[in-house]
Design goal:
Length: about 290
């Protein structure tokens, strides 16, 4: 990849919560150089459908966009997403299509119907003490990018098969898969698609990785004041944003992640993690920045 491949860098802090519009969705963008990142449509409560349309229709050409979701489920550890089920999808795109099919009647790109499916639910830990007989216990199954790449950086990944607790990411990731299904074929989705020579690209990010790169650690990854945010931005060679006092961590996560993507986009090693085989890229995907 040639240096300066991208002209814009954007990041989305995502939400899998019920409902149409979400305070937990924040979208930030910055341009090449060192100018401060900015929130897109400040004060607006985004819907997931609106975000998908912004990516497909409004996002500036030549943008590297990171979405804070898991783009797939664990596959490599057992050779299937849902071992023992004949209809288990063979790859990530088929998984996205299955989520979309089972959730077609769920409004606002929700994904509740997916985990309520008789076979799928056997693999999930859900609220109310409902743990599927194939969940596997412990923290649940992890993808290779989580159990190798993220842990090596000091992250504390959570299984996408766990839907219980404040740190669970499974709901957000399933709703995000509905967005990826809509974007498939419209914008390259790395590493499910190879990195093209030109144009925009969407990647999976984990905002904790951006915070660690800025000198924080996993337990202190959330930035809840403009002072903390601007210290972190300086660490990734970005000018500060304007503001004083508190800031919600959805906006700060998106702002820092956008600036971090700008700082590391030309790092060839991040586009070629050693543990990411072609099969893993096709089935599990990868978190950009996890080595």
């Amino acid at each position: 990849m040639t240096p300066g491949r991208f002209q814009h860098f954007a990041a989305i802090d995502w939400s899998g919560a019920a409902g149409e519009r979400h305070a937990g969705i924040a979208l930030a963008i910055c341009d090449a150089g060192d100018r401060a990142p900015r929130i897109v449509r400040p004060g607006h409560r985004w819907s997931r459908v609106e975000v998908a349309e912004w990516i497909a229709r409004t996002m500036p050409p030549g943008t590297l966009l990171g979405i804070d979701i898991s783009g797939s489920l664990a596959f490599a550890d057992q050779g299937a997403y849902f071992p023992g089920w004949p209809d288990s999808p063979p790859d990530a795109r088929a998984l996205w299509a299955l989520v979309e099919d089972l959730c077609a009647s769920d409004p606002h790109l929700g994904a509740g119907s997916f985990v309520d499916h008789a076979e799928v639910s056997r693999h999930y830990r859900r609220h109310g003490g409902r743990e599927g007989d194939l969940f596997g216990g412990g923290i649940g199954r992890l993808r290779v990018t989580e159990r190798i790449g993220q842990i090596a950086l000091g992250c504390r990944p959570t299984s996408n098969f766990n839907l219980v607790g404040a740190s669970q990411v499974g709901k957000a990731s399933l709703t995000g898969m509905r967005v990826l299904h809509r974007l498939s074929g419209r914008v390259p989705l790395w590493p499910f698609d190879p990195l093209p020579a030109h144009g925009s690209v969407v990647v999976e990010i984990y905002t904790t990785i951006a915070a660690i790169a800025a000198g924080r650690n996993a337990s202190r990854s959330k930035l809840r004041s403009f002072a903390e945010l601007n210290d972190a931005l300086a660490a990734v060679d970005s000018k500060p944003v304007r503001g004083r006092g508190p800031i919600d961590d959805h906006r700060s996560d998106a702002l820092l992640a956008a600036a971090w993507l700008r700082a590391v986009a030309d790092d060839q090693a991040l586009w070629n993690p050693p543990a990411m085989t072609d099969a893993i890229a096709r089935t599990e995907g990868w978190t950009f920045g996890a080595r």
